[in-house]
């Protein structure tokens, strides 16, 4: 039998039971809309985070130690990368810059009559500040008594800090150091990508004369500065090769290897690795939440199956008539499957825009850029139709098996 | 018995038994031929087996034993799908309760057998509309059954029975649900259609209805008691 005719018969039947059909469709709408909402929201969050990292950090490789026990965060920050290691890393082909980072503890930082307690100060090289990140002023020189602050830090004082102003840093031993702010930045080159999303107020100082964490280098045989973290800026065209060369050095005869505990793994991770890791986490969360939304869809499917069973019973006589005038079992099945599929399709067609709307609202609320998940949308519509068909299969099969003689007698 | 070309229906030694907590013999070794263009009535009290006979000839049911051949096709050996095709193309049913699809218009009801016979939409509509005007309902094509009188509904059902130009029209108490005048009009319509060459098998328990046929087959307790020739007995 041609599909047009079964659609026509179905539409009449749906129209004859408007309320019942509408309620069934609503069940599917809720299911599809929830799936779409969570999927789009997840995709939007992911796109936002990943997009940011990709634009700024593709060519960075981050070097740090991860203890076997992930919770032991202090050991991650052991100063194990010596000056000797840094020199060796600089020699690897493809490495454009090596940016060590050390932590300088302070009791407080004062500006005018305002004091901020326990501020963490990062010691790094002038190369960390490119024109791209400088908002005003300049970078410090390698051995200058000067600091660079980020915008959050500049905004932490009642009057915004600007280049040329002076800060007083109180060191853990109580001594004070007066420094000049020479520049304000909105980030640093080689920053760990995740820090962009929870940017803390930061003060950056030159390694010399502020940073003095020293260890004895096993290779050089002398005491020299060592850092807990190093970022390498590498040639973006040769990231994989450079990354593996760095990893080989770290795992081999580096000072960091000798200085770290045996169960600490030294890793060289690219910006892309971070992107993948973060995407992976977000995707897993999205999948989990969307999975829960699928339950709503299953409930919608049960609604369709239920209404179709009622419909088959109510239309027993019609089934008998159709069979008496030449309908084969599969024609009868088709009529009922089309009805179920139509309810499912209608549900997804209404559910997709609703889901997008709610998803859009959620992204606005979470202040992330809205992005579509076209695959999920196509999937949702497909699943809606499928849900209808699957839910309609058993009722349609029951309909097809109706004995025409009994059906024609049915009141 | 030879199967001549003008035999539309051959019922050959057909039995039908039902298991209703004990075997019930609805038909017991019944044989009956209907020649092309004939008009036969089957009479008998309720439970005599006349409806079973009609269901077997119409392909709605299969015999327990024996053979039913309609227009050269062995209904008793046909698969379920084949019987559906036979019901659609070789047989036209007219029921006591009309059995129209409640949400389809008159023209769509008439066209329904053509849907299952694979006709395209325009040809279906054209055929159905011409049949409706043949039964005098040209102005009711787009009405649904609930907007039609009992007599009009039965006319729609008759037009539907004619739609695939079947070899045989099976009518089960076609006047049972309409008043006497309307019933007479329906029987007049049957006479006209019979005169036009259609083969009729009519099941009834009313003598005056059966007398419109050429012969009356009397059925009782699953047996054919007698075949009465009333040819020429029409008014």
Automatic annotation (TrEMBL), chain A:
Membrane protein topology class: Multi-pass membrane protein
ABC3 transporter permease C-terminal domain location: 292-404
- Assigned GO CC terms: plasma membrane
Tell me where it mainly resides. Answer: membrane
Sequence ranges assigned to domain MacB-like periplasmic core in this UniProt record = 21-247
Q: Which UniProt keywords apply?
A: Cell membrane, Membrane, Transmembrane, Transmembrane helix
For this protein, the record's PANTHER family field holds:
ABC TRANSPORTER PERMEASE YTRF, MEMBRANE COMPONENT OF TRANSPORTER-RELATED
> How is this protein named in the record?
ABC transporter permease
Q: Which organism is it from?
A: Haloarcula vallismortis ATCC 29715
Automatic annotation (TrEMBL), chain B:
Protein keywords: ATP-binding, Nucleotide-binding, Transport
The organism's superkingdom is given as Archaea
Q: Name one GO molecular function term.
A: transmembrane transporter activity
Q: Which residues form the signal peptide?
A: none
Do you know which InterPro entries this protein is assigned to? AAA+_ATPase, ABC_transporter-like_ATP-bd, ABC_transporter-like_CS, ABC_transpr_LolD-like, MacB-like_ATP-bd, P-loop_NTPase
ABC transporter domain location is: 9-235
Q: Is-annotated flag, keyword Flavoprotein?
A: no
Q: Is this entry keyworded Acetylation?
A: no
Q: Which PROSITE patterns match?
A: ABC_TRANSPORTER_1, ABC_TRANSPORTER_2
What SMART domains does the record tag this protein with? AAA
Give an example GO cellular component term for this record: plasma membrane
Which PANTHER family does this one have?
ABC TRANSPORTER ABCH.1, IMPORT ATP-BINDING PROTEIN
Q: Protein name, please?
A: ABC transporter-like protein
């Amino acid at each position: 039998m041609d599909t047009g005719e079964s659609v026509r018969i179905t539409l009449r039947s749906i129209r004859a039971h408007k309320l019942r059909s509408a309620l069934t469709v609503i069940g599917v709408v809720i299911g599809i809309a929830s799936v779409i909402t969570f999927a789009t929201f997840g995709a939007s969050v992911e796109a936002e985070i990943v997009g940011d990292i990709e634009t700024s950090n593709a060519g960075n490789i981050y070097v740090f130690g991860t203890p076997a026990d992930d919770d032991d965060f202090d050991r991650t920050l052991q100063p194990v990368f010596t000056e000797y290691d840094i020199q060796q890393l600089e020699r690897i082909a493809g490495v454009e810059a090596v940016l060590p980072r050390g932590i300088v503890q302070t009791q407080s930082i004062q500006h005018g009559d305002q004091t901020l307690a326990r501020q963490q100060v990062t010691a790094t090289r002038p190369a960390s500040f490119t024109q791209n990140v400088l908002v005003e002023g300049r970078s410090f020189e390698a051995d200058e008594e000067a600091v660079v602050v980020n915008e959050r830090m500049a905004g932490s004082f009642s009057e915004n800090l600007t280049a040329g102003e002076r800060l007083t840093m109180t060191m853990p031993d109580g001594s004070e150091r007066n420094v000049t702010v020479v520049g304000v930045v909105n980030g640093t080159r080689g920053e760990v990508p995740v820090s962009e999303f929870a940017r803390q107020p930061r003060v950056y100082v030159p390694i010399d004369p502020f940073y003095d964490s020293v260890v004895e280098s096993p290779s050089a045989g002398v005491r020299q500065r060592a850092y807990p973290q190093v970022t390498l800026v590498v040639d973006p065209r040769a990231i994989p090769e450079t990354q593996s060369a760095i990893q080989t050095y770290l795992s081999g005869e580096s000072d960091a290897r000798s200085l770290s505990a045996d169960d600490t793994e030294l890793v060289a991770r690219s910006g892309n690795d971070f992107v993948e890791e973060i995407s992976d986490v977000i995707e897993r969360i999205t999948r989990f939440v969307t999975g829960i939304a699928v339950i709503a869809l299953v409930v919608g499917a049960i609604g369709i199956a239920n209404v179709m069973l009622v419909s088959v019973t109510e239309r027993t006589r019609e089934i008998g008539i159709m069979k008496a005038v030449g309908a084969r079992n599969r024609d009868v099945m088709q009529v009922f499957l089309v009805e179920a599929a139509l309810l499912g399709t209608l549900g997804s067609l209404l559910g997709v825009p609703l889901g997008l709307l709610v998803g859009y609202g959620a992204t606005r609320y979470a202040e992330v850029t809205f992005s579509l998940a076209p695959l999920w949308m196509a999937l949702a519509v497909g699943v809606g139709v499928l849900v209808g068909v699957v839910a309609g299969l058993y009722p349609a099969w029951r309909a097809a098996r109706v004995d025409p003689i009994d059906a024609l007698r049915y009141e | 018995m030879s199967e001549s070309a003008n035999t539309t229906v051959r019922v050959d030694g057909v039995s039908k038994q039902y298991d209703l907590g004990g075997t019930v013999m609805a038909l017991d070794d019944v044989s009956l031929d209907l020649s092309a263009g004939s008009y036969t009535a089957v009479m008998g009290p309720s439970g005599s087996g006349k409806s079973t006979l009609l269901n077997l000839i119409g392909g709605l049911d299969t015999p327990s034993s024996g053979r039913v051949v309609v227009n050269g096709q062995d209904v008793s050996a046909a698969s379920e799908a084949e019987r559906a095709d036979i019901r659609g193309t070789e047989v036209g049913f007219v029921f006591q309760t009309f059995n129209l699809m409640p949400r389809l218009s008159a023209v769509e009801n008439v066209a329904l057998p053509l849907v299952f016979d694979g006709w395209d939409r325009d040809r279906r509509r054209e055929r159905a509309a011409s049949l409706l005007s043949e039964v005098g309902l040209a102005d009711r094509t787009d009405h649904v059954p609930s907007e039609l009188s009992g007599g009009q509904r039965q006319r729609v059902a008759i037009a539907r029975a004619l739609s695939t130009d079947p070899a045989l029209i099976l009518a089960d108490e076609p006047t049972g649900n309409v008043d006497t005048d309307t019933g007479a009009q329906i029987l007049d319509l049957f006479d006209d259609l019979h005169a036009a060459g259609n083969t009729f098998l009519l099941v009834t328990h009313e003598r005056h209805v059966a007398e419109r046929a050429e012969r009356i087959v009397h059925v009782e307790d699953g047996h054919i008691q007698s075949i009465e020739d009333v040819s020429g007995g029409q008014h």
